[in-house]
Write a structure and sequence with these properties.
Elements lengths: L21 H9 L5 H33 L4 H21 L3 H20 L6 E4 L2 E6 L4 E2 L1 H19 L7 H21 L3 H18 L3 H19 L3 H12 L11 H13 L24 H34 L3 H26 L16 H17 L13
Antiparallel strand pairs: 1-2, 2-3
Helix pairs in contact: 2-3, 2-11, 2-13, 3-13, 4-5, 4-6, 5-6, 5-7, 5-12, 5-13, 6-7, 7-8, 7-12, 10-11, 11-12, 12-13
């Protein structure tokens, strides 16, 4: 006698039995991707952030203990920001490309409005630069949002209006006002370092967007003239540049030369393999901004030339990954946005390292994803998350015409 389907016992909903692991499936979908570039960019970024947390703990422990009684104060804050930034990065990597295109025009308006707050009573001056705002529960650096907004807005404008690429009048009338206002507001807060990073970002987007080189050459000449004029304004800035050009003297060794000189001594003391993690002498209140602008000097002192080369290698690997993504992108918006994020992060890293090495004067630019700083870390990871969203699926192959 055969058994019909109706005679089979049915499991009641209340009975225990094997059920699919919904949580595991949901987590697996977060990391679902079809390209190696996604995992290469994600892995390199997370490694840089974790390395930065270790170095923030090492470089800030002495000053944090002398100020607050706990050696883990700055590290704890940075760890919280790092966890939040990675979560934001993974969330951004799930967004489709049309989401970023939709919000690009609004992002630049929000960033400009946010930057204007530094000139209100909410603004805070740190180290002579008025580039922070006090929002009650926390402080933020609006210029970081300007970077991200320019990435999205430039990619949107250059990809949606290709006629701008061949007409310098239309290009200047459309792009220049927003760029000048954004960079001008940052420079108005005396933050020359961030202003230089913004200009590098803009030129990177214009170059990879296909703007003619002669237009970029004229714009670069104009930016250089403006930069030279600004370098002659402000007593501290002129003193730093003069000390960089002419060398340190006994008169300025205790003033503008203190930080770069002690940074050089830290690098020299590291040698090939360094003093060992946590064994820096300069972090004992000798080197200002040891966990921020000059954290690369602490890396060189504690980990030596090997550690410094490792940091350079990580950013080179990051740059190679960005270039791979640019080459494989089919959407102009994704290509330009990726190029802008690349020139932003890699350009800022090179400026920071050049300052610590004495190749450039002190500009107050942190090392991306390694230096202490909450808003900078979160916004930078958000920028990486946007690029990750472009690499989740393989680009459609280009159809060759039939002969």
């Amino acid at each position: 006698m055969t058994t019909t389907p109706r005679s089979l016992p049915r499991r009641r909903p209340t009975e225990a039995g094997p059920r699919p692991n919904v949580a595991r499936v949901a987590v697996r979908r977060i990391f679902k991707a079809e390209t190696t570039d996604f995992f290469l960019l994600l892995g390199t970024t997370v490694f840089i952030v974790l390395f930065g947390l270790v170095m923030v703990l090492s470089s800030s422990s002495i000053e944090a203990r002398s100020e607050t009684g706990s050696a883990f104060g700055a590290f704890t804050r940075q760890a919280v920001f790092g966890a939040a930034g990675i979560a934001v990065m993974l969330l951004a990597s799930r967004a489709p490309i049309f989401f970023w295109k939709k919000w690009a025009p609004r992002a630049i308006l929000f960033a400009i409005g946010f930057q204007l707050l530094v000139f209100t009573p909410l603004g805070i001056a740190v180290g002579g630069n008025r580039n922070w705002v006090d929002l009650g529960l926390f402080t933020a650096q609006p210029s970081e949002t300007v970077k991200l907004a320019l990435v999205l807005w430039l990619a949107f404008m250059l990809s949606s209006r290709p006629e701008l690429l061949d007409d310098w009048r239309k290009l200047g009338a459309t792009i220049a006002p927003f760029v000048v206002v954004s960079v001008g507001l940052v420079l108005g807060g005396h933050d020359l370092g961030t202003g230089i990073v913004l200009i590098i970002l803009v030129f990177g987007a214009l170059f990879f967007g296909g703007v003619r080189l002669r237009y970029l050459g004229v714009a670069a000449a104009g930016a250089a003239l403006v930069g030279f004029a600004l370098s002659q304004v402000g007593g501290s800035r002129v003193s730093r540049i003069s000390a960089w050009l002419n060398g340190c003297t006994e008169e300025n060794l205790l003033d503008v030369c203190w930080q770069p000189q002690h940074g050089t001594w830290a690098l020299a003391a590291g040698g090939l393999f360094g003093r060992g993690l946590g064994n820096s002498d300069m972090k004992w209140n000798w080197l200002p901004e040891a966990d921020n602008d000059y954290i690369f000097a602490i890396i060189g002192e504690e980990l030596g030339l090997v550690g410094a080369v490792l940091v350079l290698g990580l950013f080179v690997l990051l740059a190679i990954t960005f270039v791979r993504i640019i080459r494989s992108s089919r959407d102009p918006f994704a290509k330009i946005a990726t190029a802008a994020v690349m020139t932003w992060i890699i350009g800022q890293a090179l400026i920071n390292i050049a300052v610590v090495l004495g190749v450039l004067p002190v500009l107050g630019v942190p090392l991306p994803m390694i230096s202490a700083g909450g808003s900078a870390l979160i916004v930078t990871l958000l920028g990486v998350g946007i690029v990750l969203s472009f690499t989740r699926t393989r680009p459609e192959p280009v159809q060759e015409p039939l002969s």
